[in-house]
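Shipment paperwork, digital attachment
Item: protein structure file
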Amino acid sequence: MSSVAAPEPRPVRFGILGCATIARKMARAMLLAPGVAVAAVGSRSEEKARLFATDNGLPAAGLRLHGTYEALLDDPDVDAVYIPLPTSLHVRWATAAAARGKHLLLEKPTALCAADLDAILATCDAAGVQFMDSTMWMHHPRTAKMRDLINGKDAMGDIKVINSVFSFRGNEDFLQNDIRVKPDLDALGALGDVGWYCIRAILWAVDYELPKTVIALRYPVKNQAGVLLDCGATLYWADGKTATFNCSFLTNLTMDITLIGTNGTLHVTDFVIPYQEKSAEFSLASKSEELDNGWDPLPNKHVVMTDLPQEALMVQEFARLLQNIRDSGSKPEGKWPAITRKTQVVLDAVKASIDKGSEPVEVVN
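Attachment content:
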């Protein structure tokens, strides 16, 4: 009696809505991820869409190029849309995509405030489509390995202190012309761009328990238009946990997260983008004691390998959720929009504290 292998699921067909620089990385990820096809590219002109497709090696066969965003959203052969547009445009185009039944992979920061994000999520709920933000490091196997160690309690104990930094030094052209320093495009500046990752990492470390209060660090740096270039905050939980982060467009490239527990300290120096695409490290010092001539035991270095880059793993997971909805009648996975909203709520509180001169701000979910 012969067995017949189950057919491969039909690929998830992506449309890329906008040709921002970050979309180049995502186009590559879609080419690498199994079960995914790039079906269409939409831009403000068909020529720009064609140039993007050519520059990024997208197969011409079957690829549709649209000269307006509306045309891509009206394309019946697009299942899901990736949106890398400036944050100020997210509500308009994310809700338009979801209303047309397109599953939504949305670049971060997902919105300028939680109220705007709620409008997007409500449209996704009404249409029954999957929402996910594109915080890529969440999908790296290193992240899962670290989560296992934290949850195991023995190596780390209870997390008490968290520190995070994400910064890079923008050149003069960036500081004058990039969309991330323009108040009409990405008004959250460094807080929305690199601060999003710090806040997400902190929430991830405490299994998404929201802090009670945030207090912005004093003397944030803004450009002449009032957009944040360097800022930070300390987050406080009712049980005594604290977390501090700094995010900046003005200091050397740094991507640190340090978790300090009652039993151990976990440290990652490249948490957003690993130094190498196929391997990623972190160190764990557990039950450490100070000796006259050093530490005992020494920290352990953990190395986690992956065949696919984290962007492709994110696209693959998103596609898997879509295939479950399409082929098995599953409901959209609620975990991802819930995590996004908690990140946005904390970001809003930090922004409010900055605007109030570093006064304490309660975090309200």
